[in-house]
Amino acid sequence: MTQRTRPAPQPAGPRRGEARARRLARYREGAVTFALVAPSVALYTVMTVVPVGVAIYISLTDWNGFSEAMFVGLDNYWHLFDDPNSTSAWYVTAIVAVTGTVLMIGGGLAYALLLKERSRTNSFFRTLAYYPHVISALILGYLWAAILGTNGAINSTLKQFGIGPVGFLFEENLALITLIGVIVWAGFGFNVVLFVAALQTVPAELLEAAAIDGATKRQINLRVVIPMIAPVVTVATVLNLIGLIRTYDLVVSLTGGGPAGATQTYSFVILARSFEGTKVGYATAQAVFLMVVSAVLALLVTAMRNRQDRAATS
Questions:
Q1: Scanning 9, 95, 102, 232, which has its CA 20 to 30 A from the CA of 279?
Q2: In this record, what's one Pfam family (predicted)?
């Protein structure tokens, strides 16, 4: 009868050494990750988190920029809803943001569909569309003011034919339309570049298959191309909305908020009215509220896009 021999137990030393080596490797990996992430986190904290925190605190005070600030709680925020300047400015801002976004997205997409093929002619027209975007909005505003003003180039030319001056900048409704037109013209090229880049990523085989199946060019664009670039359209929509909600520089240089406040956007009211009136606490509350509205709109647009994507894949 053979007796089974038990294997000799392994010494604990090597196992402990391996565990220690693994822990050391994890610590080293964590230290490297921290060293890589820490500068970005520190910069983001200093440039974004701290200023936002300070702004929220100031918005809860009646600080005028000089004297000692006194805590007033949410009084500044309640005042936002009964301030006639804020109410009218939000109305103008909503018109500018919604109309401008629709025109820039729709027009930019249509223009990009026309110029999506690679050629020198298309490259020239893409550059021509994008060129206004690289010029300062302040300069563009002064340029168009010189063209559309009462004594501007267009009205001076009309005067030669005995036609009275057109109130591009001094009639309330027409001034708002002019402002939106200049904003769309200035931001149009940015959307064209985004959409052209997105269109060139659509697989050519997919378009050929749709054409072989008998789809028209219009059907291919509506049923194949646009759904393929929908994420880019969502990004462009968010960027346009947030950018137009914060419109300020073109208002300053083109219309100055006039006539009679017809083109005063919310950002213009914050910077040109509240801060100049030494209402720093109230102006900061307006800025914080604007930041919250921008964030909510961005989240809503993104959520709607995600819901449509889930519905399409289900």
A1: 95
A2: BPD_transp_1
